[in-house]
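We examine the record.

___
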Amino acid sequence: MILTSSQKQVLGKYLNNVLVYKETYNEMYDHIASGLQNAPQNERFEQSMHNYINAEFGGTKGLKVIEKQYRTRALSIIKREYVEYVLSQFRLPRVLRWTAVGLAFYICYKGGVIKDAWFFPTFFVVAPQLGFRTFTRYIRSFRGKKEKRSVKDSGFLFIRYIPVIFWLTAALYRLVTGYNPREWFRSLSPEVVTLLVVVHLMHVIAFSKIHGRHIRLNLAR
């Protein structure tokens, strides 16, 4: 049978109460909706839905177990792809491009064209980006437009919060020593500053590319 709009709402409400992440919600919804097209016509929809979910996934508990497994596998793939992407930057011809970027920055920084105040905020790029996404999701939820979070937003913590770790380190440095962290940057050699900037830019690009990818895994048992 083809699901009616009211039946779709029943299925969506059930999955929305059981599942946490939008990826598992979307894939489970498509899978179950497709499977219910072969359900008996003389059976109540709710009964058909629960029978199918019990048989295919092991009921509500099974759905939660599958989602947990999905999260583990998805984050493993994301982290592996992140590392692979970073390592690929050290192969030709990409390493030549990064060398050119680093050399250009080094010349400009050593020559006084680039001041530390210009690039210092770049170390905080990734965390505000994700913080803004989370903030807008909560605003939509407050307005009645609830949006399930992505499995990618709940994981990848260390890589995601490298800028936050940097900020906390800088704050602790100022608290302990009484010196502005920028003074610490000014005391670094141009070579070290260039290395820090290039590595961070590489991190931002790698994270943005990997975080933006859609990961689709087979959730059916």
Notes: Residues 5-57 form one domain. The mean pLDDT is 81. The chain has two domains: 5-57, 70-211.
